[in-house]
Design goal:
Length: about 675
């Protein structure tokens, strides 16, 4: 059979032919794709014609089609539903792809071709518009940051570092999935499940049957906090679940400490080789923050106030525990349960919402309906098209006038073979140059329904679904020339901004009344519950502190010089504890959202030294929410109007990474973001 990855897909939207693609096809296409890509770029570098936009920038963007097509199709399928062969492919090709990238970024002829175009533009011989100029500047910057000026010995060492880092990051992620699965808590006594609904228990029983176990199995999610701790009345089981979560990766078969120490040390060495003080300085230079001082400043300013809020919350919960178990000491595994009890007494216990949060209703009448209201786009399921897993569904996305905009693929349910968390990817990047329509994905970990039962979501699941769809909108509504600058191709500390903005529509009262309906009776959620939920929408000190602690931990690993990083895996926990203590964020009751041993974002993903991005983006998010509120009227006080959505789409989402990120923000907002809106959201003062 002909390899379907070796030629452009003939399916609608250029969707990969997942029905016929095999893992063997992926291997072949990766090898062929790398070879073709290098040959195409060699031809570009060898071109003796005067440099122009067409024979440099346009030609560059047309290279690597087979490799891009294969990687885009494979990565999301591997992350969502891995197997031994897919793990082996990633392990084999991660260092090969790193070497491939080095062959490009250390190629003097390619760099010189970019410089020639810049020189002709500066001399007035070539005209560059805004998108051309930014693309050229970013490519040149990439070469100058990537080691093009190193001597041959330095380049050789850089290649070694990049290859080993690629191998280790992939191995870390593989161990993470296996360790998370192994950490699941097996329960054989139903009495220990007191506090859970019958639907919840049915889901846990199904998870146990999936592993040929009797009783019930509590899967561990990727974060330190576990949603089930909100409901479990059995204190002993709460402790078991908590410890299973925070002790992952610290020992045994799935110990990740040696890998993460090696990753941190290699990154520190690479930064020094490239002329930077540390890895964080290298990362921050190309973010919106620009400097490490700016990152440290915002984290340092918020930490004391957030810790004080957390301590006050802890005092209240300790008093509550005393009434339940006199003499008991408040422990980390008690926090979520007691906080949920307190919320229940205030009439906005989010756990009560679950019967009203059926997945399909939330998706259709919440997430997608909000996009229609704001941007005029509509979604039409194409059941004949095959997604990257059996659970994946494909939707055609149309403009208000009925023309096709692109496609959206969603794979919502958790499975043992799926990476933890939730993410968006782009299978096809929007591009006017290549005339490609966008195809985006949304992969989540919503609890799957037991046979005959609905999939009921937690409120956190709902927020996550809206969040990830914000990334999808960034890709779908991209309106740029170059595929390399499309959609979410923006700085790391900007990329989370549109997704965080999209979370606000989960809280829109008119929308909530539509998507929050009882899965059995169809009755809408009580209006007073909506009012109480919206009125009490505050970010708790604890929730903010666990995020801040993870951000500070990330900075500690990546701002510490090589000579001061631990060499021995046994030093990981001491390093972590010392870093949090030094930053003023150590709290006995609140672990970081991710401890080092299971911190995918920074050791397996692309957020090294950049996990602060969620906070940096939230400054813009809070400022933008204030703007939407200003656009509201009597019918839409939250600002969910077509006019407001169109401005956000045109001036911000549509620009992707085609211009400097903060310039796109200023064009949308008319000014730099005002941090006071975030401080108010967090319950802090200036």
């Amino acid at each position: 059979m002909t390899n379907p990855l070796l030629a452009p897909s003939t399916l609608p939207f250029s969707l990969p032919d997942y029905a016929t693609i095999t893992d063997a096809h992926v291997r072949e296409a990766l090898e062929a794709g790398m070879e073709q890509h290098l040959a195409e770029l060699e031809a570009l570098a060898a071109d003796t014609e005067p440099a122009t936009v067409e024979n440099v920038l346009h030609a560059w963007e047309r290279t690597g089609a087979t490799l891009d097509r294969t990687l885009s199709a494979f990565w999301v399928a591997k992350a969502a539903d891995t197997n031994a062969e897919r793990d082996a492919i990633m392990a084999e090709f991660s260092p090969k792809l790193a070497a491939h990238n080095d062959a490009i970024m250390l190629h003097r002829g390619l760099y010189d071709r970019l410089l020639a175009l810049r020189g002709r533009a500066e001399a007035g011989e070539v005209e560059l518009d805004e998108q051309d100029a930014f693309n050229l500047a970013e490519r040149i910057k990439g070469y100058e940051r990537g080691g093009i000026a190193l001597d041959e010995a330095g380049k050789a060492r850089l290649r070694e570092l990049n290859a080993e880092l690629a191998t280790l990051s992939n191995a870390f992620d593989t161990a993470l999935v296996a360790g998370r699965n192994a950490a699941a808590v097996h329960v054989t006594d139903e009495a220990e499940l007191a506090g859970l609904s019958e639907d919840d228990k049915a889901g846990l029983a199904e998870a146990a049957r999936g592993r040929d176990l009797d009783g019930w199995l509590i899967p561990i999610v990727n974060t330190s906090g576990q949603p089930i701790l909100d409901s479990l009345e059995h204190r002993g089981l709460r402790e078991r679940v908590y410890r299973a979560s925070v002790e992952r990766g610290l020992s045994g078969e799935h110990d990740t400490r040696a890998m993460l120490v090696r990753i941190a040390r290699l990154r520190a060495e690479r930064a020094t080789l490239l002329g930077y003080e540390h890895h964080a300085a290298y990362v921050h230079e190309v973010g919106c923050a620009r400097t490490t001082d700016a990152v440290n400043d915002i984290l340092g300013r918020l930490t004391p106030g957030v810790v004080a809020l957390t301590d006050a919350e802890a005092d209240k919960l300790a008093a509550r525990l005393e009434t339940l178990e006199p003499g008991a000491t408040l422990e980390p595994w008690d926090w979520q349960f007691l906080a949920a009890q307190e919320a229940a007494e205030s009439a906005f216990d989010t756990d009560k919402l679950k019967p009203y949060l059926e997945f399909e209703q939330v998706l259709q009448k919440g997430v997608l309906a909000a996009a229609t209201a704001l941007y005029g786009i509509t979604f039409h399921e194409r059941e004949e098209l095959v997604g990257y897993t059996g659970d994946a569904r494909v939707f055609e996305v149309r403009e208000e006038d009925g023309t096709t905009l692109g496609a959206f693929v969603i794979d919502p349910f958790t499975r043992p073979t799926k990476q933890g968390g939730a993410w968006m990817t782009s299978i096809v990047d929007q591009s006017h140059l290549l005339e490609d329509l966008p195809v985006v994905t949304n992969t989540c970990n919503v609890p799957p329904p037991a046979p005959g039962s609905p999939s009921l979501m937690t409120w956190d699941n709902v927020i996550t679904l809206f969040h990830e769809f914000g990334h999808d909108l960034h890709g779908l509504l991209s309106d740029v020339r170059y595929p390399s600058r499309s959609g979410t191709s923006v700085p790391r500390d900007f990329v989370e901004f549109p997704s965080q903005v999209n979370e606000i529509w989960a809280w829109e009262p008119s929308l909530m009344a539509s998507y929050m309906r009882h899965h059995e009776t169809g009755e809408p959620v009580p209006q007073e519950w909506i009012e109480a939920l919206v009125a009490n929408r505050t970010e708790s000190g604890r929730d903010t502190l666990e995020l801040l602690a993870a951000m500070l931990l990330d900075q500690a690993w990546h701002q510490t010089p090589l000579g001061e990083l631990p060499e021995d895996p046994e030093g990981v926990e001491a390093f972590e504890a010392a870093a949090l203590q030094r930053a003023g964020a150590a709290h006995r009751l609140v672990p970081p959202r991710y401890r080092s041993a299971y911190f995918h974002h920074i050791f397996g993903g692309g957020y090294s030294a950049g996990y602060y991005s969620y906070l940096w983006s939230e400054v813009m998010d809070a400022d933008t929410v204030a703007w939407f509120r200003e656009q509201g009227d009597d019918d839409n006080p939250g600002g969910m109007t077509r006019a407001a959505g169109q401005r956000f789409r045109t001036e911000l989402l549509g620009r992707g990474g085609s211009i400097e990120a903060m310039e796109s923000y200023r064009r949308f907002r008319g000014s730099d973001p005002d941090v006071s809106h975030l401080l108010a959201r967090l319950g802090l003062t200036a």
